[in-house]
């Protein structure tokens, strides 16, 4: 009962980009299920300046800082609020969540069973919804009669028999037909006027009707599996249960006027044959370019992704896009709206994961296999924070096949942490590593150089390869990543399929690692990013391994961006280090000797990468390739950015079509296919191995 008490107090409320944040006096009315606010406490006896119904609302703590949170009402209205500190935010969030849950459950208990009734989403819209500005005779009800239908009498039985499954399938087919008619009726509306095909309420109706049918299909599939398990003994061998797929053609949905702004590749003519995902084995026909690090200049580009206004302004476009999708759908072939893009390519994002080269170089300085594994884990966990630009979840450009990105970092030797006695000459003669002659002499400089190259090696599926090396420290990393994105309702999930390999040539050690999944949450309000899943790091030679869990936030309570992990010696199954914290905030490392180390990621120094000026870059290098899109986004000209983006994608499709017609496989520039992965054409380990062989022959 204490938790259901009314609370009140001052919070800062975000109004708009011009006005910004303003103090307002908020009152949580638990009995009515309302969140109200006033100009100040003295005016609380007057009419509230604003009111939100909390039934069906979502209360979301923000990852921007520890003070901010949002209240997203079922009507679509949103309050972005900020408390004075983390404790006060938690107090408000917990009370709001309890009140929201109470009134949401009350609606379900108080409502009668589903009956045949008509309703209008227009009456439930937000205050600024175009649906509320129509004349009474022009609401959605006057155009559509949307109803729930009772099951035919006599069909309700305790146990679902096979013939009843047939009846359910028939009724679902009828429902799908009605939903299809509803979509067709909406899309036949004009694109301008009082009630249009782009009306927010109607777009929401399309999206929710599609989601409802997908949910029913999932439920029907569960019934099929349940029936199959009950009848397991009577099923003939080889019988399979088919998934009831929605019968609505996705291509037929892209008919609204706004569809021209984000065409999907699924609509391309059937005569266009897709490029095969894996190119035939071939030699590198495009000559790899050796980039001179001295031509690269320290990067001065600092694109902050902090625009909160675009999401709300483009709400209709997002709703229209969501109405085309179904749960679990692969988004690889869907071209997303331009306004959600970051101002960088995915290949450059991979480079930004290397923004702490001092920690990377320091891995090989570990005095023991145990310490080197722990140092790698520390570097691995610190790499994700800088890889994300800001708190807003925006999407980097999808790289064009053949696109490349080059950069490097220079790190003063004095800034790299080393251990006493950990020097190059400390190794026995059998461990000495010989550098090729063209790489000798670089250790005379007072800084280390880490070079990076990435290439988009495949379009379908989208696979990127990237490679980084520090010749002076005789270490390199090679990785390939296939990004698989799926629609999950109000979020988008991206699975990073692939593997990385870190080679410490001084020690003859190789560390394999994987990458976590990424999720863009709250895509209808203020989207934000979280990581999830379990990743593993292994070194076969030393027998050390690490298991790291990126925890997604529970629906109620829990912390954002939590990560836990441990490093162990596999032979003895001994845990030598444990880690916990947040991957974008503070990490705590506890070692087997009882010592504890804290790493504040927000205070780690970031080394700016060095990139060649645009005029010296090749036509397929990321920044030059996407420069017009990036410039348009900086200027806020979304339409112009869309035009440039569409031109690049159309060129890629035309080239893909030509290769398919001439049966010409795509040949990469820097990476070669080896087994299931992609390997840099001239990795450091091959150069060192060749140099050692040559030295042995000379001796």
UniProtKB/TrEMBL annotation:
This protein's UniProt keywords: Acetylation, Endosome, Golgi apparatus, Lipid transport, Lipid-binding, Membrane, Phosphoprotein, Transport
Domain PH: 4-101
Enzymatic reactions: a 1,2-diacyl-sn-glycero-3-phospho-(1D-myo-inositol 4-phosphate)(out) + a 1,2-diacyl-sn-glycero-3-phospho-L-serine(in) = a 1,2-diacyl-sn-glycero-3-phospho-(1D-myo-inositol 4-phosphate)(in) + a 1,2-diacyl-sn-glycero-3-phospho-L-serine(out)
Compartment(s) where it occurs, according to its Swiss-Prot or TrEMBL record: Golgi apparatus, trans-Golgi network membrane; Late endosome membrane
GO biological process: lipid transport
Annotated GO CC locations: cytosol; Golgi apparatus; late endosome membrane
SUPFAM superfamilies recorded: Oxysterol-binding protein-like (SSF144000), PH domain-like (SSF50729)
Source species, domain of life: Eukaryota
Broad class of where this protein is predominantly found: Golgi
Pfam families, per the entry: Oxysterol_BP, PH
Region (Disordered): 104-137, 638-658
Bias (Polar residues): 117-137
PROSITE patterns reported for this sequence: OSBP, PH_DOMAIN
Listed GO MF terms: sterol binding
Known partners and oligomeric status: Heterodimer with OSBPL9.
Family statement: Belongs to the OSBP family.
PANTHER family referenced in this protein's UniProt entry, alphabetically: OXYSTEROL-BINDING PROTEIN-RELATED, OXYSTEROL-BINDING PROTEIN-RELATED PROTEIN 11
Function: Plays a role in regulating ADIPOQ and FABP4 levels in differentiating adipocytes and is also involved in regulation of adipocyte triglyceride storage. Weakly binds 25-hydroxycholesterol. Interacts with OSBPL9 to function as lipid transfer proteins.
Record's protein name: Oxysterol-binding protein
Lineage: Eukaryota, Metazoa, Chordata, Craniata, Vertebrata
Gene: Osbpl11
